[in-house]
Amino acid sequence: MDEAVYWYALATVLLFAKMFATSLYQGFHRISKMTFKTPEDAALAGKAPAQEELPQVQKASKAWSNDLENIPIFLGLGVAYVLVGASSGLAMWLFMLFTASRYCHTLCYLNALQPWRTISYGVGIVCMIIMCIQILVALF
């Protein structure tokens, strides 16, 4: 298996695990506090719907939204990176650093850690910019 493909596949699985963990985090807080905003979920628990989501759920939702703005772009760039045969030597660094930055971003979001959240976000963006450059170099 090509080295870049290996690191891309690993990053993809790790990013899925991170996003799934964010969902579990939301569910844990809703269930442990028996607080549900959605009427059907509240009814299932025998509760009245909450006026607003729990603060932990709100933060996790914002982290999830940020993931949805960044991870699909990374996944698309990763496929292009592998298909055009961009630098295999950089693949591990770019794919794993992006993945680590997304983990850090979520942890910083959930724990209100600035400027670390912004730094983590920036690291991920820099990885994707370098991926774009590597893709263009491989194409031309």
Automatic annotation (TrEMBL):
Pfam families: MAPEG (PF01124). The chain crosses the membrane at residues 6-28, 71-98, 118-139. It is found in: Endoplasmic reticulum membrane. Signal peptide: none annotated. It is an enzyme of class 2 (transferase). Homotrimer; The trimer binds only one molecule of glutathione. One of its GO terms (cellular component) is membrane. One of its GO terms (molecular function) is glutathione transferase activity. Its EC number is 2.5.1.18. Its main location: endoplasmic reticulum. It catalyses: RX + glutathione = an S-substituted glutathione + a halide anion + H(+). This is Microsomal glutathione S-transferase 1. Conjugation of reduced glutathione to a wide number of exogenous and endogenous hydrophobic electrophiles. Keywords: Acetylation, Endoplasmic reticulum, Membrane, Transferase, Transmembrane, Transmembrane helix. It is a multi-pass membrane protein. InterPro entries: MAPEG-like_dom_sf, Membr-assoc_MAPEG, MGST1-like. The keyword Transferase applies. The keyword Endoplasmic reticulum applies. It comes from Vreelandella nanhaiensis.
